[in-house]
Amino acid sequence: MIEVLYFAWVRERIGLPRERITTDAATVADLVAQLRDREERYAMAFADLGALRVAVDQELTDFDAPLKGVREVAFFPPMTGG
Amino acid sequence: MIEVLYFAWVRERIGLPRERITTDAATVADLVAQLRDREERYAMAFADLGALRVAVDQELTDFDAPLKGVREVAFFPPMTGG
Amino acid sequence: MAVRVQAEPFDLGAEAAAFAATLSAGRRDIGAVVTFTGVVRDDTGTLQAMEIEHYPGMTAPAIQAMVDQATARWSLADALVIHRYGPMQPGEVIMMVATAAGHRGDAFAAAEFLMDYLKSRAPFWKKEITEGGAHWVAAKDADEAALDRWKP
Amino acid sequence: MAVRVQAEPFDLGAEAAAFAATLSAGRRDIGAVVTFTGVVRDDTGTLQAMEIEHYPGMTAPAIQAMVDQATARWSLADALVIHRYGPMQPGEVIMMVATAAGHRGDAFAAAEFLMDYLKSRAPFWKKEITEGGAHWVAAKDADEAALDRWKP
Q1: Cβ neighbours of residue A40 under 8 Å, at least 6 residues apart?
Q2: Residues of D in contact with B78 (CB under 8 A)
Q3: What is the pLDDT along chain D (152 residues), one digit of tens a residue?
Q4: Which ipTM was obtained for this model?
Q5: Would you call D60 an interface residue with chain C, using a CB distance cutoff of 8 Å?
Q6: Inter-chain CB proximity A80 and C124 less than 8 Å
Q7: Cys staple from B42: which of B35, D2, D122, D126, with CB 3.0 to 4.6 Å?
Q8: What domains appear along chain B, each with residue ranges and CATH number?
Q9: Domains in chain D with CATH codes
Q10: Of D122, D127, D136, the CB nearest to B81
């Protein structure tokens, strides 16, 4: 069971801020592929991975990061703080 | 008649902060040569021109600056503000 | 080395004074204090509000990691980062970085480094609300490129 | 664009707050405020006092010319320079630069430019008074070299 979080327009497109997902995905990319297959709103949110960033257990990482032992995955657009 | 000002250790070596000098010197360098010839304390203060800076009418300039029409010349070490 | 992530407005002058006060208490090796303050800008006069979303669990640790990097890289006596989230008005302070060091070079470099990283690596997202609607501010290529100068 | 040359101590927080207040009154094109504050440092614990001499007729106009150069070179909304002269104690504030701009790059660059020029081109001379006596602080090669980066 992984806690999946969405922020900014990813959250708005998917329509919820977080959800618990039971998955056998080996990597973040695998998880994204499973999410895309769920519903149109997920497919839309994950249409362009180049426009997305991912954090695994609250650390920025890449889409090929492994999910073994991971508790939390977050998807969001490039940050715009400061 | 030119108002000549001295700052920091130049002032201390010469022993006064300012004086009025009547001179026919054409350039700052000529004025320095005349001052050096005056007394030992001037010769000491102007021993190394590389260690000095000059302002003419309150603008930083070089030792070959002309003195025609000038009202004020100031001698001092490199600045250390900020 | 303090990091604060908060919704509440704060005052540049009060924070700068408090930062300087902790410095001047007891230590005499500080010659330079730099502050950067980010303000909600409204170039076109159409901005009604700015809203900043963040990632609560990640934000403060991510900023602390940036401060730790800055401390490892430059000779810093102290550093402070305050970043707000939630709704704010044009003219309001969004965030602030302060650095203190023996020499100005370290204080300036660390403050610019922290700003560049906060812009592109801290989990904040800005939304602009105008009469025409709301939109998420896009990341700028220039902000991403600014990180290059800090590569070892 | 204010320049103040004064003997009186001043407070970083109060000056930063006043600078920001004039900015936020009415204009909304400012996104970045940078301050630099110089403090009397005493690394060795032997400094009793610092004394700064200056060239009264030249100081303020020379600094104003630097501010004008900065304004011509970067897109600045406002700038402030305060520099003290006379005696001061370790830990006291010597001087301050503040810049305000639409974007952080302009505000940082103008503040660093002003600092580099103030260090080597404004007519101030520092004297350190220690138990062992008084001596004039020598100009640093590094401060002179710092000006090179601003050459066009």
Answers
A1: none
A2: 120, 138-139, 144
A3: 899 999 999 999 999 999 998 887 778 899 999 999 999 999 888 999 999 999 999 999 999 999 999 999 999 999 999 999 999 999 999 999 999 999 999 999 999 999 999 999 999 999 999 999 999 999 999 999 999 999 98
A4: 0.95
A5: no
A6: yes
A7: B35
A8: 2-76 (3.10.20.30)
A9: 2-150 (3.90.1170.40)
A10: D122
